[in-house]
Amino acid sequence: MLEIPKEKLLWIYETMVKIREHEERVAELFAQGKIPGFVHLYIGEEAV
Hints:
The chain has 48 residues and is an all-alpha fold. 54% of the residues lie in helices and 0% in strands. The protein contains one helix and no strands. The chain has one helix spanning 6-31. The two termini are 20 Å apart.
């Protein structure tokens, strides 16, 4: 079984959280009309 160092796992998790926070903020701004056009959100796909 592949063993991933704890530091690497933490970095992966932190990166996924940052991506989710960014996507949620984009969704908010789009809903407020502050981002024109279309947005294609990938919420829930952070680990893919």
